[in-house]
Amino acid sequence: MNPGVTIRNETGADVDAITDVTIEAFKTLAISNHTEQFIVEALRAAKALAASLVAEVDGRVVGHVAFSPVTISDGTRGWYGLGPVSVLPEYQRQGIGTTLIRAGLARLRKLDARGCCLVGHPGYYRRFGFENVPGLAVEGVPQEVFFALPFDGHPPQGIVAFHDGFTAAGHSDRAALAPDDTRTADAHGDSSTTRS
Ligand SMILES: CC(C)(COP(=O)(O)OP(=O)(O)OC[C@H]1O[C@@H](n2cnc3c(N)ncnc32)[C@H](O)[C@@H]1OP(=O)(O)O)[C@@H](O)C(=O)NCCC(=O)NCCS
Question: Which domains does the chain have, with CATH numbers?
Answer without folding.
Answer: 5-171 (3.40.630.30)
